[in-house]
Amino acid sequence: MTAQQEHAPYVLITGASSGIGREMAISLSEHYPLILGGRDQARLEESRVGCHEPDRHLCWAQDLAKVADLAETLPAFLVANGAQIGAFVHCAALLKVLPLRSISIAHAQDVINANMLAAMEITRLLMRKNVNAKALRNVVFISTIASQFGAKGFTAYCASKAGLDGLMKALAVELAPDVRVNSVLPGAVRTPMTEAMYADAETAERLMRDYPLGIGQASDITQAVAFLLSDQARWITGHQLVVDGGRSVNISA
Length: 253
Hints:
Layout: H1 3-6, E1 10-14, H2 19-28, E2 34-38, H3 41-50, E3 58-61, H4 70-81, E4 85-90, H5 105-126, H6 129-132, E5 138-142, H7 155-174, E6 180-186, H8 195-199, H9 201-210, H10 218-229, E7 240-243
Parallel strand pairs: 1-2, 1-4, 2-3, 4-5, 5-6, 6-7
Helix pairs in contact: 2-3, 2-10, 4-5, 5-7
């Protein structure tokens, strides 16, 4: 490890304990020191151990649905570890498929907190000089093509992700030129969170039919994020990068 790498600001990845977030952490760990965020300390440690040079990375166990706690827990974590964050990737998400009649306000609030309000609060905290010393330069929100369309049972999820994309656009304007802010909008990617959809043979067959390039892999999303974090994307902000195998342009579906 070079001296430059030792002192480089961290990349914070929420949702790093499983699925796309874990895959992203393992891939990006070759290039950045990471702070892995998630609810479960043990699963975060599993992700960290799978990373390149595990001792270079930190774990931050935090339930993002408890968004009111972030103003205390995140600054305290950074102080305790002498850490600054140069890039923030919000990959954490809550998804539970429910019809409208079954959605409670408490459930909807947890989804909106974790999927959107936590992204806003973390970004707000990282912009504070006394918390992060103006180190933040790059923000990437993992949204979904469901923020642009609709799906039965996805009411709270679609609403929260649409809010996340709106947040991205506002922040891209407000935080420029110092911070670039973008979203990645995945289509169907097979992860533990979406595994239940593939258990139904009819649903799985329909998904394969509707995606011209087939179902995506977590690595497809990781590569898009890696691009947006890199200097190759230095003139890109406020952009919704759709990575969906052609699903959203397939009007025959």
